[in-house]
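PROTEIN DESIGN WORKSHEET
SECTION A - STRUCTURE
LENGTH: 64
TOKENS:
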């Protein structure tokens, strides 16, 4: 019988840091009063911040 044991503490710590970073960024983007968007080089809109709804009559879901 063979057992393989691996220490994944570094990976778990990195995952936790990434999650916290993503959460911070998401909170910032969702609360900012500017319209932020992510658009590809071919003109496809991948993301529009929720502030577009506060600043215009457009829904973010209808743009993406």
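SECTION B - SEQUENCE
RESIDUE ASSIGNMENT:
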């Amino acid at each position: 019988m063979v057992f393989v044991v691996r220490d994944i503490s570094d990976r778990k710590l990195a995952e936790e840091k990434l999650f916290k970073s993503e959460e911070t960024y998401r909170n910032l983007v969702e609360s900012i009063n500017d319209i932020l968007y992510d658009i590809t080089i071919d003109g496809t809109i991948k993301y529009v911040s929720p502030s577009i709804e506060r600043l215009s009559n457009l829904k973010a879901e209808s743009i993406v």
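SECTION C - NOTES
The first strand starts at residue 37 and ends at 39.
The two ends are 53 Å apart (CA to CA).
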